[in-house]
Batch of 2 targets.
Target 1
Amino acid sequence: MATQRAARGLSRPPLSGPWALAPAAIILGVLVATGLGYAVAQSLGALPLAGKPDVGLGAYRTLLADDGGDLWASAAFTLWVTAASTLVAAAMALAAIAWLDRPRTRGRGGATGLLHLNLAIPHVVWAFALLLVLTQSGVAARAAAAVGLLDSPSDFPVLVRDGYGIGIVLHYATKEAPFLALVGMAISRAQPRELGVIAQTLGATGLRRLRLVTLPVVGPGLAVASALVFAFVFGAYEAPVVLGASSPRLLSVLSLDLFNASDLTRRPEAMALGVVMAVFVVALVGAAAFSRRQR
Amino acid sequence: MTAPGRRGVSALGWLLLGGLAVLPLIVIGVQALATRWFFPDLVPQEWTFASVRGLASGGATRSAVFESLVVSLTAALASVLLAIPAARSLALGRLRHARLVGLGFLLPTVIPPVALAMGLNVVLLKADLAGTRAAVIFAHLVATLPYAVLVLTAALTRYDVAYERQAAVLGAGAGRILGRVFLPLALPAIMVCAALAFTVSWSQYLLTLLPGGGRVITLPVLLLVASDGGNPTAAAALALATAIPPAIAILLVVRRLDALGAPARPLR
């Protein structure tokens, strides 16, 4: 008995076989499959809330015909907001890494602590805080007035509930940059310390260091993390509700508005839009991950 | 670069970082205590504690705090319990394609929550489960569990399985190995995992609203409604109440987090 156990102990630790994946995998699988499955079924008219099922692509046709004139504007707006947020977040993260990675920078632990703290703050709270700071009579405008840059709130640029989604971009850029910075820091910390020392010995400073040492090391991992940020912002909902204008709407907001419309016949369209969004973003992230594996 | 130049970069870095992490919270804190705070006053003219007292006495807020705590603590606990076997399998089980399977766990986090939440809303309505706390907790697992699995897997790649072999050689069964060897050694990583799962669950909006059918009202749900209303003081107090618990959860484990490099490590 004891020898049997000993033999097993030498082969595989307990609770580590492939079946140990089952509980987590099954629960996630069921949640995703039923959630998406019902969305697909309703978008195809198979499970109407009332009346007989009428299976077909009607909802997709209505959606793409875009009678309200909202869809393509929303799609373009969503792509702009998502791409801009991701790029600004990545640039901010790179700057933070370049700064924190310098041999001379002190208090790195405190800095990463602050980054973690930012990650912990719920999006709704962050959006509300930005609203207080960035409205035309907000804290930023008051600070500008205090130093004599402007006289009345209307002199302050419209940064929230604006037509370009600037408030939304600022929200996701500032909320996702810490995440990307932490990813980059973890990667760069896993590199041998000598790399930085050699660069320093050879006289690399500032931008050269960023371009020749930091970027090649953290770039690939940062790209994958940026793809995840892109996917997250693409489907995000809270910040656009608090900081966005009523038009143009992000696709996620448009989808939920259709879902909540008093006209229940629009539900299949809402589901169709959700399904199209899911397919698009999964394909995009999949392609990004795949192209990285190829290299 | 000259020495003053370098110091300038450092000062700028700290200023931006502090501004990003702390300033919005200070603004919320001030707003929560301000009754009359209009342009161009940098500091409120009148202060009040009514909003904070209102939080403690207000029925809606109190039940939202309770709801948030119950949902997020349960979701965190469930995530950890489900993540432990999965992470052991991915990190210690010498699976083929372990990396690919690990990436598969990221899939639920990529799918727009709108799509999932609308679908789940329909399923739960048909199953007569919409609007229950259990439904919301299950829905939160879509967001928390992938994260818990990846963070714990990353932590366990540094776990030395030789201790477990030692125990096995000495005759310990699976239960004793897990309880007496694994649990004490992995406890710090498990706590980090739980704290992260808690914060992720705590901030969920759509995956609360739709599966909850508008009947499970957590703090973010309440705050999103209040942020639009005419009472910024009350909304700010609510925002503080929403921000503090996850901040505490992260501060409790921040040292470990830093050593682990979480949430970054799974993405390497």
Target 2
Amino acid sequence: MEYEAVIGLEVHLHLETKSKAFCGCATEFGKDANAQVCPVCLGFPGSLPVLNKIALDYAIKVALALNCQVQEYTRFDRKHYYYPDLPKNYQISQYDLPLSRNGFLDIDIDGKTKRIGITRAHLEEDAGKLIHKENTTLVDFNRAGIPLLEIVSDPDINSPQEAYAYLTSLKSLIEYLDVSDCDMEKGSLRCDANISLRPKGAKELGTKAELKNMNSFKAVRDALAFEIRRQTEILDAGEKIIQETRLWDEKSQETFSMRSKEEAKDYRYFPEPDLPPFMIKEEKIAEIQDTIGELPKEKMQRFIKDYGLSQYDAKILVGNKSDAAYAETCLRGYPQKDKKAVANWLVGPIAAIASDNAVSISGLGILPKDVLELIAFVENGKISHLAGKSVLAEMAKTHKSPAQIISAQNLVQISDEASLEEDVNLVIQENPKVVQDYKTGKESSIMFLVGQVMKKTQGKANPKVVQEILKRILKDSSL
Amino acid sequence: MELYQLTAHELLDKIKNGEASAQNIADSLAKRIKDKDSKVKAYVRLSEHRTPNTEHRTNGIPVSIKDNICTEGYNTECCSKILAGFKPPYDATVIRKLKAAGMAILPLKTNMDEFAFGSSTENSCFGPTHNPWDLECVPGGSSGGSAAAVAADEAIWALGSDTGGSIRQPAAFCGVVGMKPTYGRVSRYGLIAFASSLDQIGPLTKDVRDCALLMNMICGYEPKDATCVNAVVPDYTQALANDIKGIKIGIPKEYFIEGIEPEVKKIIEEAIAKLKDLGAEAKPVSLPHTRYAVPVYYIIATAEASSNLARFDGVQYGWRSKEKAQNLIEMYKNTRGEAFGEEAKRRILLGTFALSHGYYDAYYLRALKVRTLIKEDFDRAFGECDCIVTPTSPTAAFKIGEKTDDPLKMYLSDIYTISVNLAGIPGISVPCGFTKKGLPVGLQVLAKPFAEETLFKVAHTYEQNTEWHKVKAKI
């Protein structure tokens, strides 16, 4: 039986405001336990929440970028459950009047664009963190009260790959807004998944499982793939899927059922009486829309149109906001109309070195003007392309300019025919058989000879010139 | 005359004239408390303070504070076992404001029904307070301790909280003045919440002038409470006129049908007649949804209370059960089971039920809608009159233990005060007579939102033209 997977993703995004959602505590990462707390986020008796307006602004910004309808009237609700990391034993969240709904995110999958619907995006506060020791559990409330945006997708995702694409597109888009660093490792982006299977072509949804504890985009993809296999086995055997929450275990690469819990948790939602409802006016929405600026998709189109880049190259370069700005500076500074050369360097050798150093291309510390200087040297023949790559590596390490490195290392390409002839003649003498091959018609043998000259000159010879010299000499000679 | 017998405004004059110092006042009060509190039991945890606040660093009059208002460094326990030992690390806004105005805060807190759940102060984990007018009677609740302390001159003036009548009803039972400000007039930051959309902090005082002085100090916008309204606070002492000629007072017909004790009814009618003598015009008004007020209140208030009390779980502060628990849920159950009193449990259960899946629409949501209708009743009535006058309570103080076996009977005694919180309007209770048994009766005056000045005008005029406020309880 062929099944179709129906997947919905719930992303919790930490909004990078300076203070928490409902109090003035700082939100810096990595501080000592319980150093950033106050009676409000600790839920002390008598404390009251007050909304951080910037958190609302940031939430609206993301909602707009996701093409959602921002609601004119919105309010908070209390969501009740008991747990030690939830100081009030209720979370201030939004239930039936969330600040935004009905948006979408387009993803590229298998060369085609697919639209994933966004059901809603709403604001809520985060809980603290539990730290389990041998015989005790400690609670750190630094994270309690931090503003989160919960983004719920429609169940439009149909494969683990699509889920992965959704998450990377979401991260790429939101990074552009400067409201969150979307880092799953740091915990500023968390993702839960709902997945069910149904016979291909069926309309009714199957029973879903909720997956939690995935700590990377890859884990989400792998967990979903595992679930598809698990659920397929069960359904093929004619059995029923149990609606439950399952945890992903990275080590064993499997999902496990959480201890059996009651069917549906009754959160007893009711409107938060300590916070009056909010009216979001048109002017406010327009004001925030103005702060959004160019998003990745538009930038990509512009790179293709204005700089003649390929879609492939453009897509890579806009993936990250600071990289895109860096790339644009390089592209603009390049004197020729055809910017392909710049794109090649950025997407090729520069990206490779960045990857080796676990940073993005803008994070290497190489100035755009130095990149352009390097490209110019290679194009002018001052150094060979090969030498160019090693100069680049040196630039990344020492942050010196290409000119400084080239003169210090004496890498200037030898293009002077007279000085090269000596080495060329030596190579011809040392390789009679290859020379013979060339003369009897094997054109490609000349490349071996070029290679030998490069070796002799420590890569400094200009290969084009060497090839020409060889051709000239071998044509003339009567060896 | 002893200093403790005087009103705050009289004492402030004495301080100004150099006739007495703040230290003298504190000492006088301490002596009175030592003398009478073993009988009245207005204060709690007395044994923890050898002598109350004898070190006086301010020039001001000590204010007595109900046990649900946070005072930094002093125990604030809502008279509940679950907050045993809790010392807030911060002052409630009203405390901060009082201190800024130069007042002293008595570290002794006044008794109350646990978490303000009650109308008699019998639900306190420390035992009931006794009405100074008849020690076998309740002082009313939930601010019974504050009311009794003021009535017994064990306090110069006090703060209480009012969610369904908890300032006004004990004020009536104890023959003192009690006011619930408009919802949003006084910051709730630091008031340990019972029902967030109904709670307000307010004064309990020996006369109307003291009430105005205390209101001047505690009212006003404060950003830590998002439900606090940013509106100018007038000088309420300016409203203490002695003239109500032409004021239209509305008499709601629904408040005078069944349930009100004949003696109380007669005393209230005489008070209304007095107001007419003083120049007011009385006219009947109708508040047709009055009979829904008690059920609506007990759904909304208990729902909000069940939520506000969820945080008391033994994890961070207060009581944690010493029983060996097998898991987290057991620890929660043991802690809350052991440390919440019966009425607290009852209300938490009711509130949880009202919010639960499948019942939310029928109970909570519906109650919210009827609440709007109750508020609209008042809006309409205030279109026809300047203020509304009612009895504060259908009875005078009842005997300790008389209503404790029937919670519903207890709930119904809030009938005249409860709608006021639902509508968010301000109300004051002033003494207006005594029953044959010598128990005080209170007259309630209501006004539209932020019209406390009308209340002061009417209450002050009535008070200055009667002698009730001069009669003291003999303990």
